[in-house]
Amino acid sequence: MDSMTVDRLDSPEFTDRYTEAIARIIEAEREDKPLPAVEEPKEPAQVLDLMAPLREPVSEAKATRGDPGPADVRELPQPQVVDLHLGNTDFHEWSRDADDDGIHREAAGDA
User: Which residues contact 73 (CB under 8 A, 6 or more apart)?
Assistant: First the structure.
């Protein structure tokens, strides 16, 4: 993997314009000069529509299913509350007496 990485890209096609711009701004600030002018791009950058590849399969899936009509909306049932009150039994004492499988079995004298 290390053989596939490069620390520096020395080529006219790869220039670090960001670092160069920051260095010019820092130098202008240090010398109390006005900030350098921003170079306008020669031609606008290509903007990719990242949603287009996602829309196509969704449209195809909708077309194969047909129009299902409006969704059937219902209220969710209220959650049931479970009472875990063990009376006078101390849970830690009760769980300590459980078998290895976690099941509490009453001893012959407990009943």
Answer: none
